[in-house]
Amino acid sequence: MAASVWKGHLTFGLVSFPVMLSSAARPLGIRFNLLHGKDNSRIKEVMYCRAEDQPVVRTDLVKGYEYDKDQYVVIEDEEIKKVAPKTAKVMEVLEFVKAEEVDPVYLESSYYVAPGEGGEKPYALFFDAMRSAQYFGVAKIAMHNREHIVVLRPGQKGLLLHTMYFQDEIRQSNEFQTDTSQVKPKELELAKSLIESLAAPFEPGKYHDTYRENLTQMIQEKISGHKVVATPEPHVAPVIDIMEALKRSLAQRKPPQPAKETHRKPAAEARPAKKKVRRAS
Fold first, then answer.
1. In sequence order, what are the residues at sequence separation of 6 or more whose Cβ sits closer than 8 angstroms to the Cβ of residue 159?
2. Domain coordinates of the chain in residue numbers?
3. In the prediction, which pLDDT does 240 show?
4. pTM over 0.90
C-alpha cells in the first residue's frame, strides 16, 4: 500500500475512529532534464539573491509573503503550525448529500481512506451505512498546508476521499452557455442514436496514454540511433451538413447484415421426374 499522506480521526456525530489517507492516483509522464546544448551536461538550478547579486544556499531561505510591491513579511514554520485548524488532526463530517448532487467539476484529487489501528469495526459500519443510504459525506480536513472541503464516498472495497475546489476557486464563465433552441428534432434523434451505438461498459483498463507510449518509443529509437518517424496527422473534415455527417456516422457503426441464403434441396435429394408410359393399343 502507498505511504499515508494524512493520519487522524474521522468523526461524525459522537462517533470517532482513526483513519489514514493514501494517494489513489498519480499522473505518469516522461520527465526530461535540462542540459547544456554545447556539451550535454546537466544544468543545476541555483538560488540567487538579487540584492547581493550572488547565489545562496537553501538553508538560508525563509518563507515570505508579499503584502505590497517588494515588501515582504517573514513567516516561520512554527507560526504556521500555531494557526493550523483542528482539521489538521480531525476530519469532521459536516453533512451528508445525495451522490447525484455533487458536480464533478468540484473534485480535485483522490485518496484511499483506510482504518487506523482499532478502527476497523466503526470504519466498516460507516462504510456499509453510507453504501446502503447512497449518500456522500462532506467533511473538512487540513493537509498539505491548506484546508480542504472533501467528499467521502463508498467505493467497491472501502471509502474513497476526493478533495474539492472551493466555490471561489471555480472559474465562472459567462461565455459558457449553450443555446439548444437551434437544434432540430431530427438532428437530436440521430445524435442520440449515434450515442447509443457508441455505448459500452466503462472499462478504464482499455484506455492507454498513446502520447507517453510514443515518447517512450521515440526515446528508444534515438538511443538506438534510428531516425524519428513523425506520427501521421489525423484528417478532420469540416462538418458542412450535420445531418449527413450523423447519417454517415451511424452507417459506419452498423455492422453489415449477413446475406440471405436461399434454401435449395441438393441435387441428390431432388425427386426424379416420372416418365409417362404408353400403353400398347
1. 19, 112, 113, 123, 126, 127, 130, 152, 153
2. 4-25+87-167
3. 64
4. no
